[in-house]
Design brief:
Radius of gyration of chain B: 23 Å
Largest sheet of chain A: none
Structural class of chain A: mainly alpha
Number of strands of chain A: 0
Helix content of chain A: over 70%
Oligomer: heterodimer
Order of helices and strands of chain A: HHHHHHHHHHHHH
Number of helices of chain A: 13
Number of helices of chain B: 16
Low-confidence stretches of chain A: none
Radius of gyration of chain A: 24 Å
Low-confidence stretches of chain B: 1-23
Helix content of chain B: 25-40%
Distance between the termini of chain A: 8 Å
Mean pLDDT of chain B: 90
Shape of chain B: globular
Largest interface: A-B, 53 and 59 residues
Structural class of chain B: alpha+beta
Number of strands of chain B: 21
Strand content of chain A: under 5%
């Protein structure tokens, strides 16, 4: 177990190194000059050059990348080009909001997705199954921006049940979590359905039924624990999907997380922030997958970590 | 969305009467005003902040030697009580107002002004405003880091500052009113280091009392402010991270006083159709021109006939319809409210047949293929399509290159873009003077690699004329100077490196409880509003 975790951690570090390299390359070849963004439109060529030198952006690519890595291993993410604030400070100030939303959103996805998947599986081929799967297809393909604004308009503006965006209380959390929950629930209901359908066909279920166990006990006690495995793997993947989804949802609801930070930084070509957010997100995805892999054997003893 | 590079000193389109508090409602003191923005405030360091969002906040936290009368473009002394200009226009002597204190309690002295100017010019500060101070004697050595300080700025005593210029420059007093000239206390800057932008200390009407990253900034009234009775508000809160559409919903719900990003284009018609909402919208002009640049160094735009033909081919009224009428047609580079604007000049008339004739004279009877670069946010691609259709009508096939702002600016600076629609990146003046619309965007100094003169238009005669105009510093000869500037822009129109399209109007929505002259809500130098002078009625 310890050797497995160690090996995975080394792999994770390599993945992060790869992510940092690819992101750095992409930002390097981007046909937009961060120095011009800092220098502003009234700057002379001399000013632009002086800023370029001070930021080390006149150095060859590998030197720049090496410097970045060297600072990074010392825990220094650098300072934002435009805000001059430490990137670490920006990330730390925004991470709690994103983590809270992550937990709440995945909770919503599971609460909505799993029951729907189970209901669909139990009614396989019937109208209710078709209806639920069509709904899951719609939620997965619905544009986040529209759903977010729709929920905001109906439940915050018209009904006044929740605040119109913002951060701080449980009420603020409901709508953004629900938006992500509704949109992501389709994945879970589909996986849950197919997994459940497979399990329901299995011999041990027939045995359980033959023993005379009640329908409820068969489903909740025997079928569900076996059908849930792919869901756990899905949560690991979902963290990645989540990271790409928060950019829009955080913007609409004024949720002060790292998605919003990333969006602003991209518009301003603020490379240290973009790098910081990318690495933190990649870390989240890697850790999420690692945890999902570690949990699986606890639920299903047949799975061995090797 | 002009948030990145566009700074703000703007003038109103309509000739606004000078702000006169006596005629307006009696101001009330107290209360907290809520302003929203989509993006985080980048910085409150006056040497660094250069977007229209932080520009006005910095104005409320800091002061400069010069200032503008609230709601107007008229210069007035700020921290300076008085000033004198020598006859040759090369020496400016300012006397400091006595009794001014920084937020940290220390009294302002002349050395603070000297320090602040040196700080902006020092290359280590990386100030985007460095280039504005080029007229000060000794600038080059200091800007290149060869000298520690600028030789042309000195403080002979605690209340006197003397500027020696290397050339007469009629815009110098405007420069002294720019945010980049605002006065900062050395000890606070050194203590905060790179974080001074988050921990600002100035002499202004408000001081920063809270900054929660990604959420809000709270500005509290400075009870010791040197203008007695100002500001009127006890505080104002800037909430960030709010989408413009959501901010509008919150404003309609009474939770927000000023949606700082304005009315979203998609909601504009809806708001203006509703009388109740329309009454909360204040309209004003801005020192803005939207234009098409044509790269004069490359065929086919190296021929003046072709450039004139493009000017004649553009149906400006139809393009203004694309943006719901939020603009007026532009006839020349300067916007109508800018001093030096040539009244009575109608520009190139919309005339497709005339344009075709010009094209065939230039040897392009069958038209040609070209590219039109445009920033990829609404409404710019739609405007580009309208331009594309207009060009098509005279035989020019322009393919649209819709890119992120930074990429368009890059292509323009590198001279790789035959045509650029300036929307989203258009020039808004830093200060209300015609000189500010020339050098970087139409003069030879801007026609370099990475410069903002995307037409790469360089006319040495006009540069000479411009230098002549700006050497007229005597206020009594201001009209003579403006006439020269008018002449310069008329010559630009003859050479036609640009096709000016429209001058955008500005619309500020305010809550019903906000009071104060309307001019304060479209203040030419403070977007969205002049925080120091607005008040809450109830």
């Amino acid at each position: 177990m310890a050797a497995y975790i160690l090996r995975r951690l080394v792999q994770s570090a390599l993945i992060l190194l790869g992510v940092s390299f690819i992101t750095f390359v992409l930002l390097y070849v981007l046909p937009a000059d961060p120095v011009r963004q800092i220098a502003g439109r009234s700057a002379t060529a001399a000013t632009v050059e002086s800023i370029r030198q001070q930021l080390g952006l006149d150095q060859p690519f590998l030197v720049q990348y090496g410097n970045y890595l060297w600072n990074l291993v010392q825990g220094d993410f650098g300072r934002s080009y435009l805000q001059k604030t430490e990137v670490a400070e920006l990330l730390v100030s925004r991470l709690p909001a994103t983590l809270l939303l992550l937990v709440a959103a995945i909770g919503c996805e599971l609460l909505i997705g799993l029951p729907l998947g189970i209901i669909a599986a139990l009614n396989r081929g019937k109208a209710i199954d078709n209806g639920l799967m069509l709904t899951s297809f719609l939620t997965v393909s619905a544009p986040q921006f529209v759903v977010a604004l729709l929920l905001l308009f109906v439940f915050a503006v018209k009904l006044g049940w929740f605040p119109i965006g913002g951060y701080g209380t449980f009420a603020h959390l409901v709508l953004p979590a629900l938006t992500l929950g509704i949109l992501g629930s389709g994945w879970y209901s589909r996986i849950m359905r197919s997994s459940m359908v497979d399990v329901l066909r299995a011999d041990f279920i027939r045995t359980a039924r033959a023993k005379g166990l009640g329908r409820r006990k068969v489903i909740l006690g025997h079928a569900l624990p076996n059908a849930i495995l792919p869901i756990i793997a899905m949560i690991g993947i979902d963290i990645g999907l989540f990271m790409s989804g928060i950019v829009v949802v955080e913007s609409v609801f004024g949720w002060p997380g790292i998605g919003q930070l990333a969006w602003q930084a991209i518009q301003r070509v603020d490379i240290p922030i973009i790098m910081g957010v990318t690495l933190v997100s990649a870390c989240g995805i890697v850790i999420g997958n690692l945890i999902a892999d570690l949990i699986s054997p606890l639920i299903d003893p047949r799975i061995k970590l090797r | 969305m002009k948030k990145l590079i566009l700074s703000t000193a703007l003038a109103t389109l309509m000739a606004l009467p000078a702000f006169a508090p006596a005629q307006a409602q009696e101001p009330k003191h107290g209360g907290n005003m809520v302003v929203t923005y989509k993006d985080d405030v980048a910085t409150l360091d006056p040497a660094i902040g250069y977007d229209w969002q932080n520009w006005s906040m910095i104005k409320s936290v800091f002061d400069g030697l010069m200032d503008y009368e609230p709601g107007t473009t008229n210069l007035r002394p700020g921290l300076a009580e008085s000033y004198e200009i020598s006859d040759d226009g090369l020496t400016y002597t300012f006397k400091l107002r006595p009794g001014v204190k920084f937020h940290n309690g220390r009294a302002l002295v002349a050395d603070d002004v000297v320090y602040s100017i040196n700080r902006v010019i020092n290359p280590a500060t990386q100030s985007p405003g460095q280039g504005f101070f080029g007229m000060i004697d000794g600038y080059d050595a200091a800007a290149e880091g060869k000298a520690e300080t600028v030789s042309g700025v000195s403080a002979p005593d605690a209340s006197t500052i003397v500027f020696k210029l290397s050339r007469p420059d009629a815009t110098f007093l405007h420069i002294m009113a720019l945010n980049f000239s605002f006065v900062v206390p050395k000890e606070a800057v050194e203590e905060a280091g790179a974080d001074f932008g988050k921990k600002p200390v100035g002499t202004g009407a408000f001081k920063l009392s809270e900054w929660t990253l990604g959420q809000r900034l709270v500005f509290e009234k400075n009870a010791d402010y040197w203008i007695s009775g100002v500001p009127y508000l006890d505080s104002f809160t800037v909430e960030v991270g709010q989408e413009p559409v959501v901010a509008l919903l919150r404003a309609q719900n009474g939770e927000v006083d000023i949606p700082g990003d304005g009315i979203p284009p998609a909601k504009f018609v809806e708001v203006m159709k509703d009388e109740a909402q329309k009454s909360l919208v204040v309209e004003g002009g801005q020192l803005h021109t939207g234009y098409i640049t044509m790269n004069v160094t490359k065929a086919p735009f190296d021929k003046v006939e072709v450039r004139r033909a493009v000017n004649m081919a553009i149906n400006k009224d139809r393009i203004i319809q694309v943006i719901n009428g939020r603009a007026v047609p532009a006839t020349q580079p300067l916007p109508p409210s800018m001093p030096g604007y040539t009244k009575g000049y109608d520009g190139y008339k919309f005339d497709q047949d005339g344009a075709k004739k010009l094209l065939s004279e230039a040897g392009y009877a069958d038209g040609f293929e070209t590219e039109l670069f445009v920033m990829n946010t609404d409404p710019n691609p739609r405007i580009a399509q309208a331009i594309q259709q207009d060009l098509k009508a005279i035989g020019i096939n322009a393919s649209i290159k819709s890119l992120a702002q930074a990429n368009v600016i890059e292509a323009g600076g590198a001279g790789n873009a035959p045509m650029i629609w300036s929307g989203g990146m258009a020039w808004i003046a830093d200060f209300p003077d015609p000189a500010n619309f020339y050098g970087p965007i139409l003069g030879c100094s801007g026609a370099v690699e990475g410069g903002w003169n995307w037409a790469k238009y360089c006319n040495a005669d006009l540069d000479k004329l411009a230098a002549e105009a700006d050497s007229i510093v005597d206020p009594a000869k201001a009209d003579e100077r403006l006439a020269k500037w008018s002449e310069i822009y008329m010559k630009v129109m003859e050479d036609a490196p640009w096709a000016p399209v429209f001058n955008e109007q500005r619309y500020t929505m305010k809550s019903a409880r906000m009071g104060g002259d309307n001019a304060l809500y479209v203040d030419p130098v403070s977007i969205p509003v002049n925080y120091d002078y607005v008040f809450i009625k109830e």
